[in-house]
Amino acid sequence: MPFLQTTKLKTISQHINEAQNMHPEATGEFTSILNDLAFAVRIISRDVRRAGLNDILGLTKDTNYHGEQVRKLDTYANDVIKSSMKRSGHICIMASEEDDDIILNPVQNKKAKYVFVFDPLDGSSNIDVNVTIGTIFGLYKRIDPNSEDPGTIDDVIQEGYKQVAASYALFGSSTIFAYTTGQGVDFFTYDPTLGEFILTKENVRMPTKGKSYSANEGYYNKWSKEMQQYIDYLKTIASDKSRPYSLRYIGTAVADVHRTILNGGIFIYPSDSSMPKGKLRIVYEANALAMLIEQAGGRATDGTRRILDIKPEAIHQRTPLFAGSVEDVLECEQFLRGEHPFQK
Ligand code: AHM
Ligand code: MG
């Protein structure tokens, strides 16, 4: 077995503790929340890796708030995360893709000031076919951190720029845990033999321009003319070889975004004639992904507005999402405004 790179050998707990030591005023609550999160991811990773051997594939009899059929792994991941994140007592309220309503924490301490939002299993349609899936998380402080009352929906539907941390886990060829606290993005890779997440990429920066786009092009005929024009443009051969772009689409937003952070390019889930507000949910999908993209030097908008500036009005509100390398997203926005000179 190849050796680990030992120059910067650091586990996620060591990394989180070092960050805490740089803030003498820190109470340790935040550190405890991040450690609980890493623990939940370890559990889900273990069970995803054994999918097929355990009874975790397939559908439940339920449909969720979005009218989608709930898979067993959606429910399982949702339960694991809720019970792990309740434990510390520092989280007063949560919201999940799989719960219609807000989730109050029965074990919160009176001064619990954190709000936790998550998509327990992103890319559900890929679960049963062994394709990469992931989990998305966002963390906020409640609006009045001194309040001793139960959290409310207003604590959950804050603008994304107020997130104090955002994170995702990816269950792909290896399990990756990415997180930001607003000081860059770090990636950790799970070593199952050690039972530890090891720091593998620090302060990740994405290219300012890429050479691939990621969108469900099967919906081309449902898109706006402007959106179609942009994709036509990306596919047109340019004399300077800057185009055509490659198409890469997994159908798991967190995996498509992860690749885009590493390689550059653009991830798109636009509105269309059957989903005029897009598909992805702003509170627990787009906001966390947008914070990570921005922290890696990229751009994330709904076509006109910065995702992180949008004030959500409901837990399960949807948004179009255009995220990736700054130059690619800016160029896409130019098309959406009808201002790009390209004519097919
Ligand atoms: P999910 O959270 O229920 O899995 O749904 C969100 C997913 C995203 O991960 C992905 O980008 C999108 O839905 C794929 O949708 P489509 O099949 O329409 O391309
Ligand atoms: Mg999702």
Descriptive notes:
This protein is of the alpha+beta class and 344 residues long. The protein is built from eight helices and 17 strands. The strands form four sheets. The protein has an eight-stranded mixed beta sheet with strand order 4-3-5-6-7-8-9-10, with helices on both faces. Strands 12-11-13-17-15 form a five-stranded mixed beta sheet, sandwiched between helices. β9 (185-191) and β10 form a beta hairpin. It is globular. It binds 2,5-anhydro-1,6-di-O-phosphono-D-mannitol and magnesium ion (MG). 2,5-anhydro-1,6-di-O-phosphono-D-mannitol is lined by residues 68, 97, 119, 122-125, 216, 251-253, 269, 279.
What global shape is seen? Answer: globular
Helical residue percent? 25-40%
Strand fraction band?
A: 15-25%
What is the CA-CA span between the terminal residues? Answer: 53 Å
Uncertain segments: none
Number of helices: 8
Oligomer: single chain
Structural class: alpha+beta
Q: What order do the strands of the largest sheet run in, or round the barrel if closed? A: 4-3-5-6-7-8-9-10
Radius of gyration: 20 Å
The total count of strands amounts to 17
